[in-house]
Amino acid sequence: MPSTPRLLSAVAVTVLLASGCGATVATEPDTTAPGYPVTVTNCGSEVTYDAKPTSVVSNDIGITELLFALGLEDHLAGYTLSEGQDSGVDSSPWRSSFEKVPRLAEKISTEVVQAAGADLVFAGWSYGFGDERGITPESLRRQGIDSYVLTESCRNGNESARGIMPPLEALYTDLRNLGKIFGVSERAERLIAEYKQTVAKASATVPDDKERPSVFLYDAGTDQPLTSGRNAGPHEIISKAGGENIFADLDDSWTTVSWETVVARDPDVILINDYAGGTPITLTEKKEFLRSNPALSSVTAVEQDRFFALPYAALVEGPRNPRAIADFAEYLSTIH
């Protein structure tokens, strides 16, 4: 969605004041901060920001950690996060930042944003933004509040499908865009270089002469499993670590499939999204469900008891993705 600057940039205006023997020059000072306004491309549209945001509301753990990784905690009015993500905060490399910045609510809403005096909301489609929730970039724009949409969640025009670029490219795109918006581009580029190095180091351990194990990402669901298509973080966590995502053919991010399809594709490994008690089904309960489901008894991963868990914050787009690739690569190296 294109965004039009809310304020015109200040321009020095010279006024000639007539006097008896000459003119006095009065200059209106330029109050625009250096480097602003800035324009970035977000979800395929140019969005302009007139000034550096100083009162940001963020939604969800990965999105908030992106801001913390860029050193922007002083620019946050607060964040919204479900109670189920408490363990993710406890394990976060930015735990001290979570403790410093106010936790506004479990769910983001227009009321929460207004009460915080937000000048920008950073969230994503199905990561806070949603027409059914009544909070969208457009609804915020009408209130004079800027927004930034998590790139992994961008709608791609295929009904409700999301994702417009490979997951790691989405991560790097958001870091660069946020770097420009907040005037911390040098830090953003340092992080990108660091993350690329971590990914390259992990990928270099993957043998070329070995068949890649097939991997099914299991998020949740008993009737229908929620998994990752090629546009969500787990896809590249799997592929860069040396595996093959069995649902790489789905042009979507997080999406539901059928158990029949999982069985037919017979994964060698099941990667489990561990909410660490954030849902009614714990990691242990998820494993027991997978082991005890008669329909899955013939699946290689279940037969061989090949389960590996990563925390939610490492699987959604965020600064924990590169480390997750390294951890999963180490596990896959043990699969023969």
Describe this structure in words.
There is one protein chain. The protein is α/β, with parallel strands linked by helices and 336 residues long. It has 2 domains: 35-195, Rossmann fold (3-Layer(aba) Sandwich), CATH 3.40.50; 206-332, Nitrogenase molybdenum iron protein domain (Rossmann fold), CATH 3.40.50. Helices cover 33% and strands 20% of the residues. It has 13 helices and 16 strands. The protein has helices spanning 61-69, 86-90, 95-100, 110-115, 137-142, 167-182, 185-203, 233-240, 259-265, 283-292, 300-303, 312-315, 321-332; strands spanning 14-18, 23-27, 38-42, 45-49, 56-59, 76-80, 103-105, 120-125, 128-129, 146-149, 214-218, 226-228, 244-245, 254-256, 269-274, 307-311. Strands 5, 6, 7, 8, 9 and 10 form a 6-stranded parallel β-sheet that branches. A 4-stranded parallel β-sheet has the order 13-11-15-16, with helices on both faces. A two-stranded antiparallel ribbon has the order 1-2.
